[in-house]
Amino acid sequence: MTILQMEYFVEVAECGSFSRAAEKLFVSQQGISKQIASVEQELDMTLIDRRNRRRITLTREGEILFSAWKQALALYRDAMAEAMIAAGKLRRKLRIGIYEAGPIADYVMPLINGYRAHEPDTDVECVFGSEEYIMNGLERGDLDIAFALCGKYRDYIINCYPIYYDRVCIALSKRHPLAKREELTVGDLAGTPLYVLNNSYSYDANNNIRELLKANGCGAGNIVEVKDLNNLEMMLHMAEGVTFAPRILLRNSSDDICFFPVEDKKNGDSIILYTIWKNEKVREEVYKIIGIRGEDRQKTGG
């Protein structure tokens, strides 16, 4: 059995189709089918149930080998890349995803530029997008590190380290009638449009705000979902509604937005900017970027 045959089998299993796998690998469908049949003959096992022509499924034996071979191939590729880097035949690459919200990039980019200056042999690529986009890229392996406000994302196995703390505030235009008050509470927002980022843009924002309203005895009838941060900022500047947000989330270049800190009895008013990674191989690079000293690494489990 060869590495190539393992790659063919894993790709077919992930695509659920011989034809789609052949297209991705730039080989003929006949060739890929022949190679997998050869593996089955060598092992004396049926790995693929071919009865469903629309989407193939794996046998129990196939599922076991798929899981093991996928991990083995990842280790193989990582080892080959590390060996080529050590031999000077390949430059190290680091792909970093940054939540594109407000001043977050302004805070993160000096850290990344400092890393670039100290690690000139590493190629750093920065990708900006929504939390959904960034975290999915991290899960797929398209990104090595992410900077976002969600320390936990669905059921993904990730590592994170907090680098910036902020507070949840009621944010609104200085021209909004409520901005004239000396203090604002969650209960004061009844009947006022409450702008919330939808889950496709921020995984946590919508749910967190609904929980905050519930904890303060308020309903969610005045919630208006918006598709992205630009829309949210534009609607705030129109002075027709408010939002819950930390200062680091919103750009206030025109100095039009004011913030009233939310006093939450459950101490849930902390917003944390995290550096997040999944592959343990990049932990050292994370430390270098965010400047964790050797004596502090034990706190992160490193």
Task: Write up this protein.
The strands form three sheets. Strands 4-3-5-12-6 form a five-stranded mixed sheet, with helices on both faces. It folds into three domains: 3-86, Arc Repressor Mutant, subunit A (Orthogonal Bundle); 92-164 and 272-300, Periplasmic binding protein-like II (D-Maltodextrin-Binding Protein, domain 2, 3-Layer(aba) Sandwich); 169-268, D-Maltodextrin-Binding Protein, domain 2. Mean pLDDT is 83; it is low at 293-302. It is 38% helix and 21% strand. The protein is α/β, with parallel strands linked by helices and 302 residues long.
Outline: elongated
CATH topology of the largest domain: D-Maltodextrin-Binding Protein, domain 2
User: How does the major sheet shape up?
Assistant: 5 strands, mixed
In terms of per-residue confidence, which ranges show pLDDT below 50 for 5 or more consecutive residues?
293-302
The CATH superfamily of the largest domain appears as Periplasmic binding protein-like II
Beta-strand percentage range: 15-25%
Average predicted local confidence, pLDDT: 83
Distance between the termini: 37 Å
Structural class: alpha/beta
User: Roughly what percent helix?
Assistant: 25-40%
Structure at a glance:
This protein is of the alpha/beta class. Helix content is 38%, strand content 21%. The protein has helices at 3-15, 18-25, 29-43, 60-86, 104-118, 131-140, 205-215, 229-237, 283-290; strands at 48-49, 57-58, 92-99, 122-129, 145-148, 159-167, 169-173, 194-197, 223-226, 242-245, 257-261, 270-277.
